[in-house]
């Protein structure tokens, strides 16, 4: 996590720019090869210059381990007694101070064997700013995580087992997102896993939502893609008219002029280009580290990219 503020001050003294907090969230293939979590013991020493490390170690009871790194210049402390989020849940919580904002940040991981209980945590957003991020292995239409691996596996297996469109954790989160008006899901629907899942979720309290952006990192990838969240700590709004105009611009879509399509415009379709980009990334990863896991991921991505291209091309022929 990093704090940023534009502090260019030539001759005049412009209004101080609002500070922002940048967070990268990544369920990488671990500090050890082919392991999705850190799997680090409590006495493990790991240093990155300029950052303070907070570790939730792996244990004999089956927890896999989480790490949160914070830029050392950001005032913060670890929350010794975080909100309980369910038996077996891995919860690492910090409180950061950015500008005038005191922000609890929760790093969560849920294995398939445990159930999330996020009611108490998410209702905190009714009275305090809050940021929650983690791989929760949750599936529900509201989360746009509908078991997308089924389509890929069905092309490679003779008898693919059908995947459920929802699971208990997904249904639990869906209810909370509908019933707790103070929390917002930032995910845009873009996959955070190479097999098209939306497993890595980022949620913020409503007071932060308007000044927060979320995106999938364009290059950092393992079996999960890294995501970037930028939280802007906005000063109090003084110009009511400008505030209303900005809110209207954000809420009301603007029409755009039609675009001319090339004869083979399907190849330049945004979805096709994105999947081809991921294939290229994983081809380079496999060339650098050839192993069965990376080969299998590359094969899955190639299969998915072909399906997306065929779908886009077929739609073009239907329209012509």
UniProtKB/TrEMBL annotation:
Gene3D superfamilies: Endonuclease/exonuclease/phosphatase. It comes from the Eukaryota. Pfam families: Exo_endo_phos_2. Residues 106-227 form the Endonuclease/exonuclease/phosphatase domain. InterPro entries: Endo/exonu/phosph_ase_sf, Endo/exonuclease/phosphatase. One of its GO terms (molecular function) is catalytic activity. This is Endonuclease/exonuclease/phosphatase domain-containing protein. It comes from Chionoecetes opilio.
């Amino acid at each position: 996590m990093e704090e940023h503020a534009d502090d260019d001050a030539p001759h005049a003294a412009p209004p101080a720019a609002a500070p922002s907090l940048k967070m990268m969230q990544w369920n990488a293939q671990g500090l050890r090869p082919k392991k999705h979590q850190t799997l680090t013991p409590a006495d493990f020493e790991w240093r990155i210059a300029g950052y303070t490390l907070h570790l939730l170690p792996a244990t004999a009871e089956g927890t896999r381990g989480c790490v949160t790194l914070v830029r050392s210049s950001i005032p913060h402390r670890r929350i010794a007694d975080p909100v309980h989020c369910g038996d077996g849940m891995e919860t690492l919580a910090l409180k950061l101070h950015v500008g005038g904002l005191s922000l609890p940040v929760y790093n969560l991981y849920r294995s398939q064997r445990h159930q999330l209980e996020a009611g108490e945590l998410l209702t905190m957003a009714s009275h305090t700013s809050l940021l929650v991020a983690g791989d929760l292995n949750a599936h529900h239409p509201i989360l746009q995580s509908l078991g997308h691996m089924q389509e890929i596996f069905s092309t490679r297996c003779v008898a693919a087992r059908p995947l459920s469109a929802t699971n208990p954790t997904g249904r639990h989160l869906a209810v909370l997102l509908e019933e707790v008006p103070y929390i917002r899901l930032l995910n845009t629907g873009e996959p955070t896993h190479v097999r098209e899942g939306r497993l890595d979720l980022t949620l913020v309290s409503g007071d932060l939502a308007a000044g927060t952006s979320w995106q999938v990192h364009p290059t950092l990838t393992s079996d999960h893609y890294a995501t970037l969240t930028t939280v802007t700590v906005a000063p109090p709004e003084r110009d009511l008219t400008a505030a209303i105009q900005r809110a209207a611009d954000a809420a009301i879509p603007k029409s755009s002029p039609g675009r001319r399509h090339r004869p083979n415009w399907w190849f330049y379709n945004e979805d096709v280009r994105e999947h081809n980009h991921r294939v290229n990334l994983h081809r380079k990863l496999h060339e650098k580290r050839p192993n069965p896991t990376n080969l299998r991921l590359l094969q899955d991505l190639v299969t998915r990219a072909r399906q997306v291209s065929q779908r886009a091309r077929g739609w073009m022929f239907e329209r012509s």
